[in-house]
Amino acid sequence: QYPREELPVPTHGRYKLHNEIEDCIVCDKCAKVCPVNCIDIEPIRSAETIGQTSDGTTKRIYAAKFDIDMAKCCFCGLCTTVCPTECLTMTPEYDFSVFDIAEHNFPFATMSEGEITEKKDAWDKHQAEKAAQKAAKPAGTKSTAKPTFKPKMPTRKPNIPPKKEGGEGSE
Length: 171
Known about the structure:
Layout: E1 17-19, H1 29-33, E2 39-45, E3 51-52, E4 58-59, E5 61-69, H2 78-82, E6 88-90, E7 105-107, H3 113-136
Antiparallel strand pairs: 1-6, 2-5, 3-4, 5-7
């Protein structure tokens, strides 16, 4: 009978989403391609590299929030297709029914509120330092002067054969 009997799951089936957050570079491609907006991501940029994923991709963005609302998901699989690190996958779990619809929202981010605040403050400080360096640069020194005159390139004239006199149509 159904509740106790487990049906065989096809290998190409699309079911519950899972994100391996350690391999996620928080590129936001999955959220942008999702036709029903079931993926909610809040990125926090970092001034330095954070680490690497299992495939060697450099991580530079923290995931303050990475939630997938499976109640909204249409199981199209587009998010798994565009993921560059293949951290977002469909699991073979097909029966995840619950009484409360709020339980279909699965959070994958592992940062605490304190860590989120700390990382946001560090990024804001980095941006302020960068702006101060740009403002402190002497006004008299220009990095590279752009040329004011751009020479025109010679154009080729089309090869149109000259009309012959006395040909057809002339009397």
